[in-house]
Amino acid sequence: MSYTRKNRLVALIGLMTLIMGMLFVPATQAQSSSTSCGAFYTVQQGDTLSRIARAMGVTAAQLQTWNKITNPNRILVGQSLCVKMITIVDNSTYTVQRGDTLSRIARRYGISMTVLAQVNNISNPNQIYVGQVLQIPAVTIQ
Fold this sequence. Notes:
- By secondary structure, the chain is α+β, with helices and mostly antiparallel strands.
- It is built from five helices and three strands.
- It has helices at about 5-25, 50-55, 60-65, 100-110, 115-120; strands at about 30-40, 80-95, 135-140.
- Strands 1-2-3 form a three-stranded antiparallel beta sheet.
- α2 packs across α3 (about 60-65).
């Protein structure tokens, strides 16, 4: 791996770590949970699953499982790989009030609007309604 590519990869990992720290809060008492991809990486020329795993702080086996890869020696340039999993734990609810927006509700609970929409199967974050009951997840990163 060239020096420039390695620097870009290190910068990307640092940026992802910073973003993940801002978007997610630790999980508390769990009632039910689901798993979703928390970060992606696009395969570059010369990448291997084990190198990507090492750079992302996970195992090649985890990458293989998360991405349903049957042959770990066959990844394609341009392929998008899930490199961090998040477990979404539903542990409380919120009833939408007049004037609420999904982004404000997400900010109030310290989670990302994307995760809040995903947990509640909201395809258009601009379409929530008064009285709608939202699941408020606590999130852990694997």
